[in-house]
Design a protein that fits this description.
alpha+beta; 6-stranded mixed beta sheet; 4 helices; 10 strands
């Protein structure tokens, strides 16, 4: 296949370079931050995400599905200049410090995550004291866009791997939540260790 020049360097003929805003749907308008005081009255099973991690678990959710979270301010860039990303599946709430996006067919959310994992975003960040990547700058990041049939084939190939990763992440999140629930009770003596059903041959 012939190779042609593009703003991102050589690419196969028939491929394109588009902008991030052209290959993604943005849901930032649906975000709703909750203070720690409010969250303390809403404790539950659904993760509450900040720019870089889960901050809490509450009893309600704003989103349900497969989304990519991209840090907007505060924690927006890693030490090697890449964006702070969280690939999320299921029901969750999110504050206003992270962009909420999905891939726009045929550019999947999984591929959006893989692409952004390899993008250097230092040139798109504003603010010295408080680093920020606003929606306008995010949307102008150039993205390599292969033909539709390749995008569909790639998604079909990688989807099972992402399903396995998601299952493991969900199990780990449940274990962390159980740990955080039990540890204070163990420390206070409210729960006796001898009463726990522990598989000592297969410790966690």
């Amino acid at each position: 296949m012939p190779i042609v020049e593009s703003e991102l360097g050589p690419i196969p003929q028939g491929w394109e370079v588009k902008k991030f805003g052209e290959v993604s749907h943005n849901f930032d308008r649906l975000r709703k931050p909750l203070s720690g005081k409010v969250r303390s009255t809403m404790q539950g099973e659904y993760p509450y995400f900040g720019a870089a991690k889960i901050l809490d678990y509450i009893n309600d959710y704003l989103f349900d599905g497969r989304y990519l979270l991209i840090g907007e301010d505060g924690s927006v860039v890693t030490k090697d200049g890449k964006p702070v990303l969280q690939l999320v599946t299921g029901k969750f709430w999110v504050n206003n410090h992270t962009h909420v996006v999905q891939g726009k067919y045929p550019f999947s959310t999984n591929l959006l995550y893989l692409f952004m994992s390899n993008v250097t975003i230092t040139g798109y960040i504003t603010g010295a004291a408080q680093p920020k990547i606003n929606q306008e700058n995010l949307n102008r990041i150039p993205v390599i866009f292969p033909p539709k049939n390749l995008l569909e084939l790639f998604e079909e190939t990688i989807q099972p791997n992402f399903e396995n990763i998601n299952a493991i992440n969900l199990k780990n999140a449940n274990l962390r939540q159980t740990r955080d629930l039990l540890l204070p009770k163990l420390m206070s003596g409210e729960i006796d260790v001898s009463e726990l059903d522990i598989d000592r041959d297969n410790p966690i």
